[in-house]
Amino acid sequence: MRNAPEIRITGSGLVSCLGISREATLAAVKAGRRVQGEPFSFLADTPYSSCLAVQEQEPDLRGCIADRRMRKFMSRHAELAAVAAREALEEADLPARNIAPERIGIYAGVGLAAVDIAASAKLLRTSMDEGGSFSLNHFSRDGLRTIHPLWSFHTLPNMPACIVSVLEGIKGDNGIYTPWEDQTAFALLEAAYALHEGAIDAAVVVASDTPSHPASMVEIVSSGFIAPGEIVAPGAACLVLERPDTSAPTRPFSEISELRLIASAEEHSLPNDPLAPIIGRTLAAAPLLLVILGPLLDLPRRLHGCGGHRFSFEAA
Questions:
Q1: Higher confidence at residue 204 or residue 157?
Q2: pTM above 0.85?
């Protein structure tokens, strides 16, 4: 894929199982902490009994989102994205710089939808006809009555970007990319080109994933996307991007001088994430987390994602 033009990172934020901010995560990593995975007990005696996911270290986001009314609409994906975006936007200080909301774009990478299993099972059971097959008639007449009216907001892949845009007043161009690592890399590329072409003055690129949800984990494992013994974990990250000629004259967090997404010759090999041994496999969130933490931890700045692409970058 094409190279992205030089862009400046004026704000960054992240949420991981080691901390709910960039500095908290970095401090935990430097102190030698690592994620701990464990199998889900109710997956015992299944082909997924040995799959490891972060459970006890799940980030506690209570108190991080002030708008309690909006929280009713927020899935775990959206909560993670909102917290990471708040940190990044505070660092970039966009509101104080009077950039028009219509000139701020948002581009999001999102993983698989993770819904409540018990509610979903009840919905499906009630939607079966007398022969045991799924029926649209039963679904519309009976199944939908079993779930909360806000349930759909927790299943739509565009909701993390929607929630962030509402909370932060972002009204510019937008794009949603799902569900694997390479899709988030596409989001980052598109944001860089929108800036370069003058469609927007600032770009908010956010990504979140909850692969430690049991339903997501089963799909990931059955597709052969993780290695034996690898730990999957929730995570989110956000970057505020601007052009060097239009950003504020403050010292940026970093500058990306080269950004590449290329088709991999190893399409059938297991994906590789340099951060996986530290904070777990965060899948869709991984490219942005690598951009933020890679230079600080001196990690390889290349990621081979589930989609058969390699994402690499050079940061100053």
A1: 204
A2: yes
**Inter-residue contact 259 to 9 (CB < 8 Å):** no
Handedness of CA 135, 140, 141, 145 (dihedral sign): positive
- Report the C-alpha gap between 290 and 16 in whole angstroms: 12
Residue type, 106: I
Please name the residues in contact with 133: beta carbons below 8 A apart, sequence gap of 6 or more. Answer: none
Between 74 and 180, residue with greater pLDDT: 180
pLDDT confidence of residue 1: 45
Instruction: Report pLDDT digits (tens) over 267-297.
Output: 557 789 999 999 999 999 999 999 999 999 9
**Cβ–Cβ under 8 Å, residues 9 and 254:** yes
Q: Which of 145, 159, 111, 133 is nearest to 283 (CA)?
A: 111
**What dihedral do alpha carbons 49, 17, 161, 199 form, nearest 10°?**
-120
For 246, the token pair is: 């239009």
Distance CA 175, CA 158 (A): 9
> Structure tokens of 70?
């909006």
φ/ψ of 53, rounded to 5, equals: -140, 150
**pLDDT for 37-68, tens place per residue?**
998 887 888 888 888 999 888 888 888 888 77
- Apex 170 CA angle, 162 and 289, nearest 5: 70
Rounded percentage of the chain residues whose pLDDT exceeds 70: 95
Nearest Cα neighbor of 108 from 52, 160, 36 is 160
Q: Across the chain, how many H-helices and E-strands are there?
A: 10, 11
DSSP 267: T
Q: Amino acid letter at 38?
A: E
